[in-house]
Specification:
By secondary structure, the protein is mainly α. 42% of the residues lie in helices and 5% in strands. Strands 1-2 form a two-stranded antiparallel sheet. Helix 4 runs parallel beside helix 6. 20% of the residues are buried.
């Protein structure tokens, strides 16, 4: 677990110091798109992975930061159980070496996921102990996804 914590890129999280001050959508902007995204995220029947794409400078990061901030603040109480809505984030950036490559993507997300949901920490730690090369950014992404996400979950 300690090794995973060292390798995970803290600067890729939406609320990291490296991302401050992060951009937020101004009131009244991107209203329809934000409603659409939150509608998808609130529906457990729908795919909960949303891929924002477009030309540089149109506001993808601003939208993603706004959604992440709102989802982090939400808690759902059902029969006295609290669910966190934001499992993890990874913001790519050309400014930071480890944030501009996909090699740290799954390692960083699984670290956040296991931190937010401690019930999977042991399974994630076991996967890393069984195959320490999973933490190497040059390990194929499909291998990282399989061993760090699919098997533990």
């Amino acid at each position: 677990w300690a090794r995973l914590a060292q390798v995970a890129v803290k600067g890729a999280q939406y609320n990291s110091c490296e991302c401050q001050p992060h951009p937020k959508c101004l009131d009244g902007t991107w209203v329809d798109l934000l409603k659409y995204i939150h509608k998808l995220l609130d529906n457990p029947e729908k795919n909960q992975l949303i891929w924002l794409h477009g030309m540089a400078g149109i506001g993808k990061s601003t939208i993603a930061f706004t959604v992440a901030e709102k989802m982090r603040g939400l808690k759902v109480t059902e029969e006295m159980n609290v669910e966190k809505q934001l499992a993890g984030t990874f913001f790519f950036s050309r400014k930071h070496t480890k944030c501009c490559t996909a090699g740290y993507f799954f390692v960083t997300l699984v670290y956040q996921l296991a931190t937010n949901f401690p019930s999977i920490q042991q399974d994630v730690s076991r996967a890393v102990c069984n195959n320490p090369t999973l933490l190497d950014p040059d390990t194929p992404l499909c291998d990282q996804m399989e061993a760090l996400f699919l098997q533990p979950l």
